[in-house]
Amino acid sequence: MGIGMITITAMAVLLVLGGSTQVVESAIGVNWGTISNHRLSPSTVVNLLRDNKIQKVKLFDADPDCLRALMGTGIEVMVGVSNDLLATLSSSTAASDLWVSQNVSRYMVKGGANIKYVAVGNEPFLSSYGGQFQSYVMPAMTNLQQSLAKANLAGNVKLVVPCNADAYESSLPSQGAFRPELSQIMTDLVTFLNSNGSPFVVNIYPFLSLYGNSDFPQDYAFFEGTTHSVTDGPNVYYNAFDGNYDTLVSALNKLGFGQMAIVVGEIGWPTDGAISANVNAARVFNQGLINHVASNKGTPLRPGQPPMDVYLFGLLDEEAKSVLPGSFERHWGIFSFDGQAKYALNLGSGNGLLRNAKDVHYLPSRWCVADPSKDLSGVADHFKLACTVADCTTLDYGGSCNGIGQRGNISYAFNSYYQVQKQNSQSCEFDGLGIVTFLNPSMGQCKFLVGVAEQVVTKHLSLGLCLQSRGSRRLESLV
Known about the structure:
Layout: E1 13-17, E2 20-24, E3 27-31, H1 42-51, E4 56-58, H2 64-70, E5 76-81, H3 86-91, H4 93-103, E6 114-120, H5 134-150, E7 158-160, E8 163-164, E9 168-169, E10 177-178, H6 183-195, E11 200-203, H7 206-212, E12 230-232, E13 235-237, H8 240-254, E14 262-267, H9 279-294, E15 298-299, E16 302-303, E17 309-312, E18 367-370, H10 380-389, H11 405-420, E19 434-437
Parallel strand pairs: 3-4, 3-17, 4-5, 5-6, 6-7, 8-11, 11-14, 14-17
Antiparallel strand pairs: 1-2, 9-10, 12-13, 15-16, 18-19
């Protein structure tokens, strides 16, 4: 265990992996993705992880800047293979050898990165993908496993496939089964995982159930008790997480792997961009989840066995992500884009509440707003441009800035653009409609941001600075 491990239960949990029983401790990790116009340097982010005793991190690629910053920290890392690489890796052992050499071996040296998992694809079985990645997963897994073995890493690095919860379905947890068209590939996958001592990784989002279904009982999404419990034979479910988790347990059991270890690869609650997305709801959900796992209670089908690990989604807000699933997509972080805690959250690390990032360098304290002396009747194109380049999702219905009025909306858009442009003086012109102010125009819960200053990072011809690639998530079932 590296320095600063977040161990959220003092009790060891017995899990069966690959036919043998081993002792593990459930831990809380985080997903680190930075599809952002205001990126912190990797070293700043790693210091944030260490200050908060977060000892497990999941990346969505294998970016050199991130991995170099993680070297020597002891932090356990899951690196990712993007879905668009699966076809190449499935058809070429030379490609898989090269990928392992460039993205795993080079960092696993003495004092290097603690790479524990390689995620082969990300939610590749999403129904919305129409099966386009399905045939590549197992051949890519086979090739990568051989490449790890050639590099003498197969004993230390485990291959996994993060799956969305739409891979399985049921009206009740006990009846859970993988989608019929996935039956064979899931049998092959879990057989492979079991033989190599790897867990099943699943992403669960009760928020999406609530967001996408007006009949979904709100209290069932949380861990505070509910008046809408689900009775399933002798078992009663009081929250959506347990119901969803046990649906997966049932699906695995039907394939003969009912004791396979499960890791929750993504779970969380957004703080903005929708009616049910707010700071208080996020705090209640995430704290409830952490306490639930720490209690060692487990679920009705796995009493006393919480998930092997749980990775919160996510570490930081990513205000350049696609909003196709909803405006909330840019607001999942437990920290804002600049590494400042959004709410009081105890990760169970013995470290108390979240600690803010240190040594964050901001642009000067100035903002771009709509000139109060100007007629704004011709502002539409400027507003559209600003919100295309920058993030205006807090202005949407249910957002924290939804109630600041038309002129406030325009000012918010102007400033967001201005900060993305690193406060370039010309970026506040808007044909004379914008003006720079040194008075903070924030209103109540609506915060007008100041961007972070450029920080020097090494440039690489890679997939970008810890960029992640995720498909649109499917709404989870009631259970």
